[in-house]
Amino acid sequence: MSKAQTLLDKLWNAHEVLIREDGTSLLWVDRHLVHEGSHHAFAKLAAREGDMAAPDLTFAVVDHYAPTHGRAKIKDPQISRMIETLRGNVAVHGLKIFDLDDPTQGIVHVVGPEQGLTLPGLLINCGDSHTSTHGAFGTLAFGIGATEVAHVLATQTIWQRKPKAMRITVNGTLAAGVSAKDIALNWIAQLGTGGAQGHAIEYAGSAIEALSMEGRMTLCNLSIEGGARFGMIAPDETTFEYVKGRPYAPKGAHWEASLADWATLNTDHDAEFDRDVRFDAADIAPTVTWGTSPEQALPVTAIIPDPNHLDASKGKAAKAALDYMGLTAGQPLIGTPVDQVFIGSCTNGRIEDLRAAAAVLSGRSAKISGLVSPGSALVKAQAEQEGLDRIFTDAGLTWVASGCSMCVGMNGDLVESGKRCASSTNRNFRGRQGRGARTHLMSPAMVAAAAVNGTISDVRPLLQGRAL
Amino acid sequence: MAGWSTHKGTVITLPLANIDTDQLIPARFMSVPRSEGYGNYLLHDLRRAPDGTLDPDFSLNGNAKPSILLAGANFGSGSSREAAVYALVDAGFHAVIALSFGDIFSSNAVNNGLLPARVSDADWNALSGATGDAQINLEQGTITIGTTQVSFALEDSWRVKLINGWDDIDLTKQHTAQIAAYKTQRHQSAPWAWPAHVD
Ligand code: SF4
């Protein structure tokens, strides 16, 4: 009898072209997603006068530099140049591009799943660390650097050492107002940003199975913030239901064949993991970051920690973080004044995220300003059809086009130095949202609560008596 | 990329944990073509006061021309931006020594001839207390500062790659036939893995 296999084993074996003596595998890449930031890689390919190996498996998206307003006439020449460079490379190699004026444009990790480019059982690479998002479909998906992007362009393969296998099991039921974002921030706070380094995470358990595809994507997306290059979830009916009928998804006989293949994509009952950790969904509260690393997160009801009470290495980092964040140890997180909010990004810019935020904001007004940028033009259209845009604008927030926007600030949407932003994004690193910007990561519903009160707030009381 | 097996240089210490890629190079510099050089953007905001002047207390701002960085845990965590490695390489660095590294950063580093050397807590402390000339020996896997010598951890395949300065695309081209065979087999066994045609 062959050895029991993990989902990682099965996906890995299916893509292994060869394994070198030193244990490095050459893997076949089913989908390669590129964006404006891929310019270094295209330049490397051009420098060797090389052709692309599989333009039909490569898809380009304008997202990192995509302006969220005034698209018809882009004012910043640097942004125009970045987008024009991508268009030029797309033209040279004959790639499909989801361009600014395309009704299906959006953030690469939103567009891939939406278009059915992301499927269970595939291997997906993109020059972006949040490529782990696609693992939500039972997909081997990981972010790569520019040299590796050039390698995939040239060969449609990638050299990779197999990571160790780690399972995070979450059983039980999430309370109202608690979401996939909170599951993620909670485990990262407990295990640390290096907690899953060198590992591929498989998420399992009843709380994971109960998540929608949107929630699963949020969770897998944040795997990299805990150090894991891969996050994955075994595909099930929820997955198949989501994929079915999407533009690039298999049709007819291919669809039937794919379903049969996908049914085998799960971890064998007695397979072993290098690391196995468990959480109880009932223990997870709405979670907020207070520092400059995603592991510096606590339940919203907590008080800001005193660096002197943490162990030496953490204490030093905590002190520096509190200085940067302009926070005082011993104060409650709730009530911390916030200057602005941002709802969007590949972490929390999907329709379900906008619905969760709108459920809190409906009939209320925001005390502070903020930007709402849907993850894609399709999400935007869907939200407008549901009237969510009106809820946001009636509350006083600004409704804009889709792109990475304030997640990374490359398109000019920045948080000013010293300003505090409640954000549905993925990184609270110093300067991530702009030089000197102070970012608090939280779920979209929690961002909405911060907007309503103008302070960091517990969303749960605001949800009372509201249909979710 | 040129290979190397030994390096002599000067060490500088940056005893901070979690130096993420957004610190190593802020996003606003990433549209610059590589030919213009990325060295000036290394840790751009961390080493400057808000008014843009260099902070004289920041270790990297001294007169020494360091080529080895001794840094805290989880170095290079965060994004896949290879520009973080370009900034280090263009500023003259050959190696970063740390307790741990972000996974994507490490592979990006090796792809650019930069050594990500992992050391234990005790060895890190020994190195940070040592003075004198520094030397790295890739074959032996050792770092020497003055009279202090420690071993570092590195995947064997990465050691070989750094020493030979190999380019992965050239290596992979040797396997073209195997890749073609794999592709044919995959196309037969999983035709659904190719994107459906969209009108
Ligand atoms: S939204 Fe943020 S994390 Fe996601 S792809 Fe864009 S820049 Fe990367």
Please provide a written account of the structure.
Chain A has about 475 residues and is of the alpha/beta class. Chain A contains 17 helices and 19 strands. Chain A has two domains: about 270 residues, Aconitase, domain 3 (2-Layer Sandwich); about 180 residues, 2-Layer Sandwich (Aconitase, domain 3), CATH 3.30.499. In chain A, the strands form five sheets. A five-stranded parallel beta sheet of chain A has the order 5-4-3-6-7, sandwiched between helices. In chain A, helix 2 crosses helix 5 and helix 6 runs parallel beside helix 8. Chain A starts with 6 loop residues before the first helix and ends in a 5-residue tail after the last helix. Chain B is built from seven helices and eight strands. A four-stranded antiparallel beta sheet of chain B has the order 1-6-7-8, covered by helices on one side. A four-stranded parallel beta sheet of chain B has the order 2-3-4-5. The longest helix of chain B is centred in the C-terminal third of the chain and has 14 residues. Chain B starts with 5 loop residues before the first strand and ends in a 10-residue tail after the last helix. The chains are: A alpha/beta (about 475), B alpha/beta (about 200). The interface between A and B is large, with 82 and 58 residues.
